[in-house]
Amino acid sequence: MTATAAGNSLPRHALLPAALILGRDNNDRPHAAWFMADQVEAAEKAAGLMEMHFLTVSDNQDLAAIATKLPKGKLFDSGKAFVPFISGAVFNTLLPHAPPAAAEHKEPKSRAPKPPKVSAAPADAPAMPPAPTAGIDLPKDWSAIKLGSVVLASESKEDGWWEAKVVEAKPNDVFILQWSDYPDYERFVRHRERLALMFPRPFAS
Questions:
Q1: Domain count, the chain
Q2: Is the pLDDT of residue 38 over 50?
Q3: Is residue 133 classed as helix, strand or coil in its secondary structure?
Q4: Which of 9-18, 43-52, 152-161 has the lowest mean pLDDT?
Q5: Over the stretch 129-181, which tens digit does the pLDDT of each residue have?
Q6: Predicted local distance difference test score (pLDDT) of residue 167
């Protein structure tokens, strides 16, 4: 079906990648997505709000080829954008095209400082009490996953597992989830068998 037949009168070139947003989040995970020609201005503003990098594809054939391997981004009413996780290998192919600040791979400004090192406690020192988990539902097994549960989900093998919260339970063991660290991102669907469990109580020191 052509774009015109689908009710979209935009020329074909307007539906191809015209700009990219890329960057790393506070946990150093790589993100990137492409945007169409009519989204370029809004995407540039979104990149600024999210402290990520903005690139125009223009006539750069190498960059255009990489862009086709990326997920399509989505703009939110908040002014930010949905820029999904991508593999580290693909992200590294984008770095040569990025501004110098991106290529240098500096740590994000908002990243929390590393805690100072502390010496080990004496052997006879009393054990520290575990951190409280009140109000957080960490299921002890897969059958206990329900609305409000905090679990681990993955986008791909390269991205690893990240914390997510169940915001809706569907029939047949299907759940709607939201990334805990990224409430602006689109909610996603996972089957119970595709989720991992967090340790149901804090580790004792």
A1: 2
A2: yes
A3: coil
A4: 9-18
A5: 444 455 688 998 999 999 999 999 987 665 678 889 999 999 999 999 998 87
A6: 95
**Among 85, 103, 121, residue at a domain's last position:** 103
Closest CA to 29 of 195, 177, 199, 182: 182
Q: Is the dihedral of CA 79, 102, 89, 177 positive or negative?
A: negative
Residue 5 has pLDDT above 60, yes or no: no
Contact of 70 with 17, CB cutoff 8 Å: yes
10 Å CB burial of residue 158 (0-12, 13-18, 19+) is middle
Distance CA(104)–CA(125), nearest Å, equals 44
For 39-96, the DSSP string reads GHHHHHHHHHHTT-EEEE-TT-HHHHHHHTTSPBPEE-TTS-EE--B--HHHHHHHGG
pTM of the full predicted structure?
0.54
Predicted pLDDT at 132 = 47
Q: Which domain holds residue 22?
A: 13-103
Which position has the token pair 């897969």? 142
Rounded Cα distance between 40 and 20, Å, is 9
